[in-house]
Amino acid sequence: MPVKKDAVKKDRRQSQIGEIWRRLRVNKGAVAGLCVILLLTAMAVFAPWLAPYGPNKMNAGPRLAASSLKHPLGTDSFGRDQLSRVIYGARISLYVGFIAVGIGAVCGGFIGAVVGYYGGRIDNILMRLMDVLLAVPQTILAIAIVGALGANLVNLMIAVGVSQIPRYARIVRASALSVRGQEFIEAARAIGASDLRIIVENILPNCMAPIIVQSTLGVASAILSAAALSFLGLGIQPPTPEWGSMLSLGRQYMRNAPHLTFYPGLIIAVVVLSLNIFGDGLRDALDPRLRQ
Amino acid sequence: MNQTVNGTVNRNERDPLLEVRDLVRHFKVGTGVVHAVDGISFSIMEGETLGLVGESGCGKSTTGRVLLRLTEATSGSVTYRGKNVLTLGRAEMTAMRREMQIIFQDPFSSIDPRRTVGDTIGKPLYIHRVGTKQEREERVDHLMELVGLSPRLYNKYPHELDGGRRQRVGIARALALSPGFIVCDEPVSALDVSIQAQILNLLEELQQTMKLTYLFISHDLSVIRHLSDRIAVMYLGKIVELSPTSDFFRNTLHPYAQALLSAVPVAKLHRARERIILAGGVPSPVNPPSGCRFHTRCRCKMPICPEQEPELLDAGGGHAVACHRIHTLS
Amino acid sequence: MLLSVKDLCVKYVTFEGIVHAVNGVSFDIPERGTLGLVGESGAGKTTTALSLMRLIPVPPGIVERGKISFEGRDLDALSGEEMKKIRGNRISMIFQDPMTSLNPVLTVGLQIAETIAAHQNMSEREAMKKAREMLEKVQIPAARYKEYPHEFSGGMRQRVGIAMALACNPRMIIADEPTTALDVTIQAQVIELMRDLRDEFSTAMMLITHDLGVVGEVCDRVAVMYAGEIVEEGSLEQIFEHARHPYTNGLFRCIPDIDEDNSRIQPISGLMPDPCDLPAGCCFHPRCPECMEICRTRKPAPFTENGQMVRCCLYTRGGAGQ
Lengths: 292, 330, 322
Description:
Chain B is an alpha/beta fold. Chain B contains ten helices and twelve strands. Chain B folds into two domains: 233 residues, Rossmann fold; 64 residues, no CATH class.
């Protein structure tokens, strides 16, 4: 009997993260997606050792050259090595993508959960504010923010992140509204949980699914909006390598040198796809109801 | 003006544990004001079970929730051991929650699907910073044993349990802080008959071992009779009859209560009784009928009924009724 | 016999395994007879009803075997088209939740008229007229036929459901928990109405419910289901006063007595078995207070006496027990 009890105790100490990981591991697609993302992250971290050339070294080869042994992904209009630029570009692009989505998801999620939980006047005021934000085209909003704060990497991330807040706020509010009506929220109030605790511990975990799905899609759009801003000269300044700006730069040469748009585009697609598959798996792993 | 009547089951001449005075809860809706609870008064003695019966929309669940301030009262007072619960500050109310708890109807929505059983039961202890982590875990083990849950279920999620076991989790959570008073809001009506009996027996046992006082809300009169010492019948936000249980069943006074009792399908043959079928449905609580709220469906309606609202008066022996025919009823 | 079901077996294939929902159910309903099918959730009551209407979703459902004959015709042999003519016309159904079983965007009059027009050779106008008559029959003013379901209260909606079920003057009605969602006083109205109309239309009825009280009000025969089997069947009096199966007796002991002050209740210990993994022998043996050694291994055969059928080893072994 005491042996059994000990076993139960030990079992109970397993951390939540360990539990989620065990459930995630079952999903092969999610693990593959996670691996790709980790590989790309590693690529960004170890860029100086991986890249065959400096990312900004001009005339490393002939201009607009197609793939060759010397330049596996070809060269751009300044003769810079594409492969090196893609590898270095991961640093900025992933950074911007993740942080911007992080800002959007955390702020938007929290706002959505708060207004969904309280309802009434707070809901009205904040959601009308979100509507105003939604009504302004995202890029213009981001331009305004970067314009006001000044053009640099941090402000770029803030700009892209803030412009994403309303989307998260909307979807989280919708699920928070349905969670709020459940009796377990009343039960939490009855045992004396504060509103903040209820929002963080009960509402948000039950609104995880849409946040995760939206986030994994959001990374791509964040990379692209960052690129658009860079293109307009607000944000990352050339010649800093960055996938989005490589994409827009290559656009002019699409006919003669399609590889200039193809490779950056491909890698963005790979990131989005793996994030999406991983996100789906994570959503399922976080939901105990879906566990076998 | 004072329309309160305390039951004579004031057994040991104790003060009531909980006293409700002129409690009102109105909700604003698009079309007007819902009179969910409209001026009710009652008291509950220590160790007693007060059964609150009525049909859906009569305000019985709202009453339970107002007592615990899960929804704020519009006016009135709720006094628990001499303290007015409705005017307590935030910190005092949090402390008061250790004393007053609630068990919910729906075992499927009353437990957070993303938390384990152990986590759910231990949460009240954590919030009120009871003991060390180890002590809390031991207390959870003890509570699970008390409500008849196997310790193996500690790490299980709610969806892995059936309704009866979930309801036991809800009961354990309510008992965690050793409250004195528990609102049971239809705790068995979502359960199967055989499981319902298990939970009823558990609630009874717990009441004896932990000296609990219950406000037992139900629409099922046989369950109410089984558990309650006194019974209050609600109709459209008002208490129409309040009486010791045995008295109520032997001599039901209010025409609505009579109809309600006669409508219960009983699993017995050859049971002599008069069947009263009420016409129509319950009127909207947005515009409740004038005077006595039951006059639109009452078979003993008199001219005075739509004019003047009857008060809840003692008809003798602590058996109170709100009806103009009080003198001719028994 | 109006309806005769022999050895019906239905299972569902799910991720968790094969759910044995109905395991060899047989019963008969005569003309104008009323059978109450009683059991707790998961006993297989609704699956039985749906298979009578051939409405089991396939997949995941599989009707393994079983013969259902209605008015002398074998329902399994009918084509989909022929079955449609029977459904709603010869056999119709009343559902538990009157809110979800009505279409929220059509007026109730139109919904009843549609049912009539679908089965009977009637012009739209005649069907509409009949629909209004049906509403009057269930004590709803005919003037309300233009209203939408949300304008009715729960009890009224259930009346509309009953009007719809009776519109084509069916030979049999299957009512699946028709009063469970209703308040006590409204339930009493609906039960009264169902009884009156059953007599007026001389329809047979199968009433599915978990509430023995409702069964006592409406039915003349009762079948008690447990884990996909009918464990006991008999007349109302036999089941209510001389129940033989320990499960039936247990059910009655679970209900607090409304006529007594300090009634005792004795719960049935344990839980419903997992329908994916039914116990060997008698399905009820893990919870049975009178479980014998043989119950763990041998499935009891039906034992019938005076028209009361029971599946319990207490009786098949030379009438020992009780």
